[in-house]
Specification:
Layout lengths: L21 E6 L8 H4 L7 H17 L4 E4 L7 H8 L12 E2 L8 H13 L4 E6 L1 H8 L7 E5 L12 H12 L5 H4 E3 L2 E6 L2 E5 L2 E5 L15 E6 L10 H7 L9 E7 L7 E7 L2 E13 L5 E2 L5 E5 L2 E6 L5 E6 L4 E3 L1 H10 L12
Parallel strand pairs: 1-2, 1-4, 2-3, 4-5
Antiparallel strand pairs: 6-18, 7-8, 7-17, 9-10, 9-15, 10-11, 11-13, 12-13, 14-17, 15-16
Length: about 350
């Protein structure tokens, strides 16, 4: 017979959070809607579902003791559905009423950058981000030491996770209130730093040098135009440009190195990998050579013309007059490890309580 262990007498009830907490939520209304959705078989991620995810995340935050939630405003793509979703009484009733940041709305990445700055200035203990790799890159550029909870609602999603928002909100709340210590539930990420003359930028997953002459529609899906690829990490099960490196030599998020790949025309080399460049789009990519990318050792690019894509989106146009380098940095943004937070809470019985006692 299974031994029954009654540990209820040793439970410390989380009736009051250890400290007041503010959590920010940034949802990109344009994520999951770029041109790759037209050139492949990917579906569009609706803003109504993003609003529903935000409500579910708020329910998790409230259960963990968070009473103050700041949200990035938009022109109605998410705000409207969010207000309607908050009025629905099914599921756990949400009593926390989020407040929208008082800021100008431009409908561009500047909204994400400004919202992140204002949340950090207000003392946010965590920021929940709904978006793809590009959205998370923008938040990471301004969040400093505030940890992110990365939720995937984009096209190619190597950096954020596909995870139920209720669970994510619960984990973010436990961390923000101090119920679970940061040294248990927060992880440091790598990033790639790109320098083009006096301009610097970052990528969380990959930097790709292409033969496209213009930024254009930004998204990269034509593998024949790829020249060089740098990745901070790459899973064998990834989708997007990092999948190229993932099929050559998978690199974990915790590994103290990245990978540098030199691509080639498939008609000129027998060395090829077959990878999912975008949802529903499988391509053969020719490989000249590849090797590990070590931190603190910038790689200078040979003079040429083209564009540089950061996390799958073309951002920088260059010509032979520009001096460009790429460097791996092990001191990137902090992210919340949802599993680690909830496992710690379970071991310490943070979420258990007697029937009739405050939850």
């Amino acid at each position: 017979m299974t031994q029954v262990i009654n540990a209820w007498s040793r439970i410390a009830v989380l009736s009051v959070p250890p400290r007041p907490a503010l959590v920010g939520i940034i949802a990109n209304p344009a994520s999951g809607r770029d041109i790759r959705r037209l050139t492949s078989r990917a579906s569009v991620f609706p803003n109504a579902e993003k609003a529903s995810m935000m409500v579910r995340a708020i329910a998790g935050l409230e259960a963990a003791g968070v009473r103050d939630v700041m949200i990035m405003p938009d022109t109605g793509g998410i705000c409207g559905p969010l207000f309607r979703a908050l009025s629905v009484t099914t599921g756990s009733p949400v009593t926390v009423q989020p407040r929208f940041i008082d800021m100008p709305v431009t409908g561009s990445a500047e909204d994400t950058l400004l919202a992140t700055e204002l949340m950090c200035q207000a003392g946010a203990g965590a920021i929940i981000v709904l978006g793809g790799d590009g959205t998370h890159r923008a938040v990471a550029a301004r969040c400093g030491q505030v940890p992110l909870l990365a939720l995937s609602t984009g096209t190619n999603n190597a950096f954020p996770e596909m995870r139920e928002a209720t669970v994510a909100g619960l984990a973010a709340g436990l961390l923000a209130t101090g119920a679970v210590p940061a040294d248990v539930g927060v992880r440091r990420n790598k990033l790639l730093r790109v320098r083009c003359d006096d301009r610097t930028d970052i990528a969380l997953v990959d930097v790709c040098v292409t033969r496209h002459n213009y930024v254009g529609s930004r998204a990269v899906w034509d593998s024949a135009l790829l020249e060089e690829l740098f990745v901070a990490f790459a899973g064998a099960d990834a989708i997007g440009l990092s999948a190229i490196a993932g099929q050559l030599e998978p690199v974990t998020r915790s590994a103290p190195h990245g990978l540098h790949v030199r691509c080639a025309d498939t008609t000129l080399t027998p060395q090829q990998v077959i990878v999912p460049i975008a949802p529903g789009l499988i391509s053969a990519v020719g490989i000249r050579e590849y090797g590990r990318l070590l931190p603190g050792q910038p790689v200078e690019l040979a003079p040429q013309s083209g564009t540089i894509a950061l996390d799958g989106e073309r951002e920088i146009e260059f010509d032979p007059s520009n001096r460009i380098s790429v460097q791996l940095d092990l001191h990137g943004p902090l992210t919340i490890d949802v599993a680690a937070v909830l496992e710690n809470a379970a071991r310490r019985r943070v979420l258990r309580h007697y029937a009739g006692s405050p939850a």
